[in-house]
């Protein structure tokens, strides 16, 4: 029987952590891009666009992420499309993240005083110009803390991708546990690594929220 030292266990978990971090980054960036598009649809003057974005957001917020992962991985297989686990994981997390980010950002845009819309419209600005030069710069200040805070949920959400065979931190924990028969040690280290990833993000969100609120009150 092969003996595993604490360093052997930790090294294997850290190797898998790279994929957790990479998947989190891809999901956050991809979700942000899709979410920005949804935001523009959500606040569009056209009722059909608003309805489309609303139903998308309700669908992805109202169904479990686990189910979305299953559909992305197994659903496309019904049409003869072979989907790698990493692609299904990235796609599902991106679409799921987009729904939440779009709604977070919509609330931030709506927090901007209505007079800002009216003032920019009186200057002859179009809708896109209003968003680019007047509304988004102000909404950004409000959006940073909750956006950073939501990134924690994305990191923790990656753990569910182990169910479709993507080898990230939690999946590696299961594999290493089966090899070492040391579940307490392995999962204790897994928990510590997740904490090391998530705590700085949570703390950053709190600090940013305090600083930006103080700046807003002083302004």
TrEMBL record:
PROSITE patterns: ABC_TM1 (PS50928)
Topological category with respect to the lipid bilayer: Multi-pass membrane protein
Regions that span the bilayer: 20-43, 55-79, 85-105, 139-164, 184-202
Keyword Transport in record: yes
InterPro entries according to UniProt: AA_ABC_transptr_permease_3TM (IPR010065), ArtM/GltK/GlnP/TcyL/YhdX-like (IPR043429), MetI-like (IPR000515), MetI-like_sf (IPR035906)
Any Gene Ontology CC annotation: ATP-binding cassette (ABC) transporter complex
Protein name: ABC transporter permease subunit
Organism for this UniProt entry: Rhizobium leguminosarum
């Amino acid at each position: 029987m092969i003996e595993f030292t604490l360093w052997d266990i930790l090294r294997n978990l850290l190797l898998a952590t790279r994929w957790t971090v990479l998947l989190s980054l891809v999901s956050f960036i991809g979700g942000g891009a899709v979410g920005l598009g949804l935001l523009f649809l959500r606040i569009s003057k056209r009722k059909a666009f608003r309805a489309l974005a609303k139903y998308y957001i309700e669908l992805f917020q109202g169904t479990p992420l686990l189910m979305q992962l299953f559909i992305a991985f197994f659903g496309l297989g019904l049409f003869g499309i072979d989907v790698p686990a990493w692609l299904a994981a990235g796609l599902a997390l991106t679409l799921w993240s987009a729904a939440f980010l779009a709604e977070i950002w919509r609330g931030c845009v709506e927090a901007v005083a209505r007079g800002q819309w009216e003032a920019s419209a009186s200057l002859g600005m179009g809708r896109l110009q209003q968003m680019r030069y007047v509304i988004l710069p102000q909404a950004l200040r409000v959006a940073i803390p909750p956006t950073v805070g939501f990134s924690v949920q994305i990191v923790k959400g990656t753990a569910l991708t182990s169910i479709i065979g993507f080898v990230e931190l939690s999946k590696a924990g299961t594999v290493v546990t089966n090899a070492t028969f040391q579940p307490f040690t392995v999962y204790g280290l897994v928990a510590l690594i997740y904490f090391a990833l998530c705590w700085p993000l949570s703390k950053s969100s709190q600090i940013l929220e305090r600083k930006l609120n103080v700046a807003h009150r002083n302004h």
